[in-house]
Amino acid sequence: MKQAGNRTIYLKDWMNVHPEIKQSNSDLYYIQLSNRILNAIEVILPSELFVLEEAKEISVHVAAWFEDIISGLHIWDSFTHTCQALYGKRLPFPTIDEADYFEGEVNQADLEFLIWHLLQRFHGNENDIMINPQDPGIRFMAQGITKLLEEEYETAPESTTMQEYLDPRKYDDYYTFTRNAEWLYFFSYLHGPSNEERLNGLYEEMKEIQDQYTKEELARIFYDARNQMLFSSHGGPLACTVSEWMAAMYEETPWVKELLDGVAVRERAWYFVEEKTPIHLTLVAKEGGETIKALCKSVSMETLKSILPGKSNISVACVRYHDEWWFNGSILLDNKKENPSEIKPAAEETPAMEHKDYVAFMKATNNYDLAYIESYETLKSFLVDSLGWADNEDETLPTLKDNENFVLYANKDKGLLIAPDICSLVKDPANPYYNAEEAAEEATMLYFIPGLCPIDLLQRLERDNLIPDTGFQPLDDTSKEEAKVLFQENKDFFARYFLTDYYFGE
Which of 74, 247, 242 is nearest to 163 (CA)? Predict the structure, then answer.
């Protein structure tokens, strides 16, 4: 039975994956194409699996992908080129025959990956499941849509407004860069599905604190948090920063790629204003004492007038673009303190030393860097008796009281890393709590749930093949071994895809 609901894709649906620019003559064509793709999906998918809103989202995003291919926008190229650089292949899956793959054209393999990506974000994440890329429904959808788009390829119109919007000649301007970065990262067909969940989470956080601040204060908090997410976090299907994604888009324009490769970010910090000229503000970081020069034109005129050299302290985040520092986000100004006496000098570099917890851990475990502990009480005893931690409520990780089955890892640089509730998933002769049945069902969650397992520990377990049970649940027409091989061959990709910032230990 068909689902009730509006079965038509309209202009507003199409514009959800586009920047706020004037309509293009090609928009009507792509809206109509989106509806044709929706009809094709409905024919292909069994009625019990057809979710109307998900199918509409997929249809619009696939049509936007086609617009990208036809118009030469290079958004998709940024993914395949980065994937090639990371893994030596254009796509994590499916396997492609290079002789049958044509860059800038309609390739079924591209569509299979894109459909998996969209299904995972619109359906899998919503239901806390990892979708097996071998699902035949993905292949059937890709086949039907490929046939449709191949028929349209020669006559489909280019989007002149999107070509103009992403014109590399405009990247001499910092504000064009930030405008395009925001759209690409949060709303484009490729990156929006990966990053909108975190953006929506930020909206929810704002709702929770809305009674504590004025509207103006909330707007500033949201603006700062979004900007930090935009420029500092890793997102999209390969967990790259927005400047990395954009640099990969413009490989054919070397000066733009070099410019974007040079983007750097300084997180919000306090600075003492040492000097103000018509062009620059000279700032001294309160932590570390580093001096930077930021452009006055990145500050509103009203705020700039209030910044007093030799007196003002400001809190701000900065982005380096074109070898110049630009203020990014709101500025907090304090004119009460008069000199940089509070500036803390940068810590002197000291020779790398093994962390004290690492030394004590290795002594307690006969030089084995992993340990498996069943209960919190046993963990607490280990921390106090073996590592020498203080025996008090504040020091012995009270937040873990309700957990059990701890995997402990001693790292030379970071000391002790702990992952609760995962002992049953680790197949180590030293681990008495391994459970093959649970591992077969749940080990893949180590790659799916951010923060479940610290990345250093995950990589340590991978090194000695201590989590061999990771793999997709097999489908009717695939063997258990095939499902496992698919995951094992692409486990670094899945770690990037699902863990994002956690992949980098952030």
Answer: 74
388 phi-psi bin (left φ>0, alpha ψ -120 to 50, beta other): left
pLDDT category, 1, cuts 50, 70, 90?
A: very low
Q: 365, 340 in Cβ contact below 8 A?
A: no
Task: In whole angstroms, give the CA distance from residue 234 to residue 486.
Answer: 24
Residue ranges of the domains in the chain? 11-164, 167-260, 263-345, 356-504
In contact, 116 and 67? CB cutoff 8 Å: no
pLDDT digits (tens, 9 = 90+) for 417-449: 999 999 999 999 999 999 999 999 999 999 999
Identity at 129, one-letter amino acid code: I
Section 352-381 average pLDDT: 94
Q: Which tokens in the block code for residue 444?
A: 């893949």
Q: What is the pLDDT of residue 481?
A: 86
Q: Is the pLDDT of residue 152 over 60?
A: yes
- Domain 263-345 class in CATH: mainly beta
Give me the residues paired with residue 293 across strands.
Answer: 282
Q: What angle do CA 6, 10, 16 make, to 5 degrees?
A: 110
Quick check: pTM over 0.85? yes
Confidence of residue 302 (pLDDT cuts 50, 70, 90): very high
Predicted pLDDT of residue 220: 85
Whether residue 168 contacts residue 208, with contact meaning beta carbons closer than 8 Å, is answered with no
| Burial group, residue 305, by CB count within 10 angstroms (0-12, 13-18, 19+) | exposed
Concatenate the DSSP letters of all residues of 129-159 into one string.
-PPPTT-HHHHHHHHHHHHHHHHHTTTPPP-
Which helix or strand (DSSP H or E) is residue 320 part of?
strand 313-321
